Amino acid sequence: MGKKVEKSLKGEKNQSAISQDEEDPNKTPEPYSCTGNFQADFTELCRRNSMAAIPPVIHRARPPTQAAPESSKPEKGKDKGKSAVPEPEPEPEVDPEGENAEPPPKTYVVKDKFEYFKPCVQVEMENYDKPETVTEIYIRGWKIDDIMMNTLKQCWSVMEKLHTINLWNVGLNGETLSIMASTLPSIVNLRTLILDGNVVTEENWHELITDESPVQNLSLRHCGMTDKGAKSIGEALGTVKRTNTKLVTLNLAGNQISDQGAIDIANGLRMNRTLMSLSLASNQIGDKGAIKLGEVLSRFPLSHEEVVERRKQKSSMGSPDRNKSPPPSRRADSKDRPGSVRSSSQHDKSDKSKQKQSAKTKKDAGKGGKEAPKEEEKHDKSKGKKDDKAAAKKDSKSGKEGGTSSRKAEEESRKTQHRGSISKDKGGNTTGRSSGASLVADTKNAAKGKSKGKDKGKPSQAEPEDMGDSSFINPLTDEADFIDGQLWVPGNRLLINLNLSRNQINEQGMAAILKAMQYQTTLALGSKSGGTGLMRICVFKNKISSDHDIVRKINDIMLPKDPFYKPPPQTPEAESTS
Questions:
Q1: So what's the pLDDT on residue 285?
Q2: Secondary structure of 432-452 in HEC code, one letter for each residue
Q3: Sheet architecture: strand order including 217-219
Q4: What is the rounded CA–CA span in Å between residue 253 and residue 166?
Q5: Minimal CA–CA distance to 86: which of 68, 77, 69, 73?
Q6: DSSP label at 186?
Q7: Poorest-confidence range of 28-42, 341-355, 520-534?
Q8: pLDDT band at 445 (very low <50, low <70, confident <90, very high)
Q9: Which of 76, 139, 238, 290 has the fewest CB atoms inside 10 Å of its own CB, making it the most exposed?
């Protein structure tokens, strides 16, 4: 009984201690480390931030799959004699009270309107049995403030499967956008970022496509972007010094970009060779912006800054030995003639022979035992130093001295090896010479192997140095034409999709686009920048009529290039005439 009472008292003490810890408001809780389970991490972080209402994490709604309709074909062997005329269906009975007799369709789910508009986080998972496999996150229609963005930042940074973030109309501002941009490099598998419907007055959109950002597909539709934001995005796409090498698609439809913004984006496309799809639909772009875009797509003259950078690139590519050490100059003591190739090679041979001699003496010392010839090694070292001084004074005599010293060194090494083998073999066996010869052969082979390994490690003079990442091709190093005192280089032919519909382009701007399309079609793609050129372009609903001759020519050129275009099948009459 006494033990039971003690246990109950201990349990009451523990419970009281726990309750005191929970009730203590001054105690700072330990920092929470996210586990990768988005639902658990998000809920716990919201609770720690003392949020009154925590948005639930739910699966994204999908249309229910319908079962395949049963075949209405009659079975074989049945109703063979009956006609194939279907029987008339009975008319549906009309409910006198006006209620529907049939059940509602199953293609949607009816919810209460207040429940439908409540804030929530929709997710897509790779495996619904594993909550840590969230791949897509959708937040729509409720404001994300600084606290919520920091909460999401902590959760996103540890999600390994996350590749899509869609925040539609969530009231982002400059600060929350900067917080989000700072966490993008930590989301290693992020590829798609959609921020449609967020009007940010600071327009710091360029922070989303920095060098560290992994975003490949960026959508900023209906964000109220002006020429200010377009300029920053154009600079982030590419300048003379740096270019973006990750962004593949950019959607800026439904903004307030005018001619100046289009010019800034076109300037970014001068050096960018990664972006493949650009949408500028439903903006305020006129003829000036269209002319600049057409110039970038065909060919353009280099500015002074670009010419200077081109010369730097060409010089670094044309002289790979620039960073190597200069060749040895003439020796100061040789007044008659400079150092010849023969003398330097013989001097190298003498050095190699000295290295071989040192290797032999070390091995003999290991195998010969205690009686190693120390006096001969000192004599060889002093002799090698004298030979080096003589070679430095007189270049013509260095070859002979190196040859004689190498011969003497080999003879002395043979003697020392023979003595070492004799001192080891006290029984008077005749195996001393054979073992000495084998040691000489082994040391020679080892020296040859070392020299071969060194030669393999050294880069040959004929091979050029690595110039960096070969996947990115600098357009400044492409072939240029000198026209009217300016250098003209081929334009951007990596961009394959351009949408300029619903703008204010007239005949002049459309003519520039037609000229660019004709240039891309007729130009031989033999330059380094390569590319197929535009494959799709949308120019409808501009100031120029769709029935205009220029628009028809553009459509005739681009229609066969469209990958989704299917030519109409030929009729038998057309085939016979052809």
A1: 97
A2: HHHHHHHHHHHHHHHHHHHHH
A3: 57-59, 121-125, 134-140, 164-168, 192-194, 217-219, 249-251, 277-279, 497-499, 536-538
A4: 16
A5: 73
A6: G
A7: 341-355
A8: very low
A9: 76
Distances (CA, A) of 414 to 356, 382, 421, 423: 12, 19, 11, 14
Least confident range from 215-229, 274-288, 342-356, 561-575: namely: 342-356
Mean pLDDT, residues 155-169 = 95
**Which residues does residue 499 pair with via DSSP β-bridges, in sequence order?**
279, 538
Residue with the bigger pLDDT between 443 and 327: it is 327
pLDDT tens by residue, 447-499: 444 444 444 444 333 333 333 344 456 777 777 788 888 888 888 889 999 99
Query: Distance between CA atoms of 240 and 474, rounded to whole angstroms?
Result: 10
Helix (H, G, I), strand (E, B), or coil: what is residue 134? Answer: strand
Backbone angles phi, psi at 250, to 5 degrees: -140, 120
Confidence class for position 574, pLDDT limits 50, 70, 90: low
Q: How far apart are CA 108 and CA 1, in angstroms?
A: 65
- The token pair at 235 is 């600079």
Lowest model confidence (mean pLDDT) among 5-14, 25-34, 210-219, 283-292: 5-14
Please determine, for residue 230, whether its predicted confidence score (pLDDT) is greater than 90. Answer: yes
Distances (CA, A) of 246 to 162, 164, 190, 267, 294: 17, 15, 12, 18, 24
Smallest CA-to-CA distance from 279 within 180, 194, 199 is with 194
Q: What's 549-564 look like in SS3? A: HHHHHHHHHHCCCCCC
Q: Is 539 helix (H, G, I), strand (E, B) or coil?
A: coil
Name the residue among 530, 535, 542 with its Cα closest to residue 517. Answer: 535
- Rounded CA-CA distance 44/33 in Å is 10
Structure tokens at 193: 């970022």
487 DSSP β-pair partners: 482
By the 8 A CB rule, do 499 and 535 touch? no
**What residues are paired with 490 via a beta bridge?**
299
Q: Averaged over 197-202, what is the pLDDT?
A: 95
Greatest extent of the chain over all pairs of C-alpha atoms, in Å: 130
Rounded to whole angstroms, how far apart are CA atoms 502 and 546? Answer: 12
> Are 506 and 291 within 8 A, CB to CB?
no
pLDDT at 196: 96
Supply the pLDDT for residue 573: 65
Q: What is the Cα–Cα distance from 120 to 136, expressed in whole angstroms?
A: 14
Nearest to 345 by CA among 382, 397, 399: 399
What gap in Å lies between CA 396 and CA 331, rounded to an integer? 12
Distances (CA, A) of 222 to 74, 200, 219, 252, 255: 55, 11, 10, 8, 5
DSSP one-letter string for 198-218: ---SS--GGGGGSTT----EE
Give the three-state DSSP class for 164: strand
